[in-house]
Structure formats: C-alpha cells, structure tokens
C-alpha cells in the first residue's frame, strides 16, 4: 500500500474570503482517502472467461431475494430537505435557519471544510460510479431500465446514493465557507475524467471493490460526524451519520454478494480478492483535478491522513474485517493458485501495519496553508 508523503507543500486556497478584487480564488477540492495509485495507461478489458457469465445469470433469483431487500422504499428514506433550512416555511423562518447554520459553522476548522468538500465531491461524482458498474459483464443494465435484478439494484443504489451529494452540496452552499464556483468546476473536471479502477469489466473484481469502498466511505463519513459534534454542529453530525448509515447498508449488500461468490466459485473469487489487493484499492477521487494543481489529490489525501479521517490504519482494519467476514483463512479445497492468493491476502494486514509503524516514525514537516480564511461568515 502506498503511504502518504508528508513533505511540505502549498495547499490550494479553497475557502471563501472577502476581497476587493473580482478575481476568483484558487480551486476547491478534497478526498476521503490517504492514498493514490496512478492509473495504468494500458487498460485490460473483458478478462472474465465467457463461461463465468452463466454464474451471474444463475444468481438473478438469489439477488432478488437476498440483495434487493437491502434497498429502502423511497417513502422510508430520509431526504436532504429534512436536515436543511426549508424555504417552504416562509422567507423569515428560512433566513433564520440559514443564519443559525452559518453560526454553527464558525466552530469548524479550515481543514474540516477541506475534507467535507472532498466527501461531497466523492458523492456528487455518482454518474461515474453508475457508469463503472454498468461496464461489468453479466450484471450491467443493458437497456437503462432493465428488469434484471442486478440492474434494478444498480439503479436503486444510485438513487439512494444521489441524496448524499445533494445534502452535502446544499449545506456547503448555505454555509458560505467555500468557493462554490471552484467546487463546481472541480466536479465537472472529475466527472469528465472518470475513474480507472482497473476492474476489467469483471464483476468478481467489481464487487470486491464496492465492498471495500462502501466500508471505507462509511468510516470516513462516521469520522466526519464525530468531528462535527466536537466542532459544535450537531445537525451536520446527524447528516454525516445518516450518510454513513446508508453506506453501511450498501456495504452489507455488496459483502453478501462476495459471500455468495465465494460459495459458488471460491477459486475465481479468491483470485479476484487478491488481484484487487495487489493493485491496491484506488479511491474514486484519484483522477481529481481542479484546473490548476496536478497534485491536488495527494495534497488533500495528506489532510485526510493527518486529521485521522481515513488512514493506513483504517485500510488495515478494513482488510482484517473482510478476511474475518468472508472467512478467507478457513477456505478449503482451493486450487494451487487460489491458495497462494489466499496466503497473500491473509498476510497483507500485517504488512500494512508494519509499514504504518515505519511511517509514524518519520517526523512530518510543517505544512503551510496558502489560503486566507475568514471565519467571520456573515450571519
């Protein structure tokens, strides 16, 4: 696993300030991962043998019975407006609620808003993720409204996830703490760049990745909720907690899919888990760009690491969780290649933790922030 480089850097200015000039501030961006792996220029596609497609077709009734129930009916889902100032209450009440929100944000640090923007952009880049899932052989939505259970899951999962970005974006907009023009530009760059997770159109790889990623984002949003409480914004803490709960539920679904794949095809699934771990789990924001800083992902990743939102320790804990959850050490009857993959994965958390301990011994240089931040947001 690649570790965060704590070398000194200049952080782009992303927070709003008063200025007499009409010139806009530097771009805004952030992420929810401490690591980055540069995408390979050579992309492998359709690596799954054709005979494996039948396995996923045969699992469609199982998906209907065991995965679709993880979705919530729309009427039972929370909606962003439930956490935000409601304009339907009339202008005076709405303005009062906005003023209260802006008062609460004064207790939150500059770094917190960097990370919150990053979480928002991760969620708001949803079109990229749905597109990615719909590249997977055997489980894609062939028509855009396919009745296939795999496709129903992907569309409904997307609909549930869509609320996350909407909620965080509106909160950031009302807070007055960030330059929303730069947020919007960065998001457009991000969606346009896409994501290169190197899944090879292979659903074995895809569902290992989504299991890992949902658990990682649950951890990130949960940690942001904790810091929001400490910073004096209990409503923001509730928002982050509600998002984390969705991510946890989605994690359960994807984890159960891998459970089933280990049951019906343990060799291919064990190889897929090891393959993803060897490549390292790339975070969805790894192609981040703000139009100016080509290293912005590394910069914001360092903030996430230092603030303890998502670190190499979390990475190791997620690995350990899935090794236990999928009972990987107990798998029997594997092929020679799959046994070697099993041994690699089960030993990996110890290697990651040793690397983490070595990194902790390195004294980080002081980071100089280049932005000018005005905490006195107009109430």
UniProtKB/TrEMBL annotation:
Fe cation 2 binds at residues 161, 214, 247, 250. Its cofactor is Fe(2+); Fe cation. GO terms for molecular function: metal ion binding; stearoyl-[ACP] desaturase activity. It comes from the Eukaryota. Fe cation 1 binds at residues 123, 161, 164, 247. It is found in: Plastid, Chloroplast. Transmembrane segments: none annotated. Pfam families: FA_desaturase_2 (PF03405). InterPro entries: Fatty_acid_desaturase-2, Ferritin-like_SF, RNR-like. One of its GO terms (biological process) is fatty acid metabolic process. SUPFAM superfamilies: Ferritin-like (SSF47240). Binds 2 iron ions per subunit. Gene3D superfamilies: Ribonucleotide Reductase, subunit A. Its main location: plastid. GO terms for cellular component: chloroplast. Keywords: Chloroplast, Fatty acid biosynthesis, Fatty acid metabolism, Iron, Lipid biosynthesis, Lipid metabolism, Metal-binding, Oxidoreductase, Plastid, Transit peptide. Belongs to the fatty acid desaturase type 2 family. This is Acyl-[acyl-carrier-protein] desaturase. The gene is LOC101257379.
């Amino acid at each position: 696993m690649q570790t965060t480089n704590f070398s000194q850097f200049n952080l782009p200015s992303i927070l709003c300030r008063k200025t007499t000039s009409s010139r806009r501030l530097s771009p805004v961006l952030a992420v929810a991962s401490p690591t980055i792996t540069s995408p390979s220029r050579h992309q492998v596609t359709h690596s799954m043998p054709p005979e494996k497609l039948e396995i996923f077709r045969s699992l469609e009734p199982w998906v209907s019975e065991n995965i679709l129930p993880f979705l919530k009916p729309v009427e039972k889902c929370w909606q962003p407006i439930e956490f935000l100032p409601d304009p339907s209450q009339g202008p005076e009440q709405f303005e009062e609620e906005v003023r209260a929100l802006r008062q609460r944000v004064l207790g939150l640090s500059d770094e917190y808003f960097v990370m919150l923007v990053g979480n928002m952009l991760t969620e708001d880049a949803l079109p990229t993720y749905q597109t990615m899932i719909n590249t997977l052989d055997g489980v894609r939505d062939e028509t855009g409204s396919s009745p296939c259970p795999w496709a129903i899951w992907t569309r409904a999962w997307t609909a549930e996830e869509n609320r996350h970005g909407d909620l965080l974006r509106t909160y950031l907009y009302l807070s007055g703490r960030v330059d929303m023009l730069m947020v919007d530009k960065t998001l457009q760059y991000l969606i346009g760049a896409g994501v290169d997770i190197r899944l090879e159109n292979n659903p074995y790889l895809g569902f290992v990745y989504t299991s890992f990623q949902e658990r990682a984002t649950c951890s990130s949003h949960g940690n942001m909720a904790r810091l929001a409480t400490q910073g004096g914004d209990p409503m923001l803490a509730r928002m982050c907690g509600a998002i984390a709960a969705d991510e946890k539920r989605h994690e359960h679904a994807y984890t159960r899919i891998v459970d089933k794949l280990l049951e019906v095809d343990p060799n291919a699934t064990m190889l897929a888990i090891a393959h993803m771990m060897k490549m390292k789990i790339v975070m969805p924001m790894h192609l981040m760009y703000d139009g100016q800083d080509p290293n912005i992902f590394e910069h914001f990743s360092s903030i996430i690491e230092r603030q303890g939102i998502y670190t190499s320790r979390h990475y190791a804990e997620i690995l350990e969780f899935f090794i236990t959850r999928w009972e990987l050490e107990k798998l029997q009857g594997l092929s020679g290649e799959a046994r070697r993959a099993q041994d690699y994965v089960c030993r990996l958390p110890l290697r990651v933790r040793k690397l983490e301990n070595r990194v902790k011994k390195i004294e980080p240089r002081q980071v100089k922030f280049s932005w000018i931040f005005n905490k006195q947001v107009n109430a």
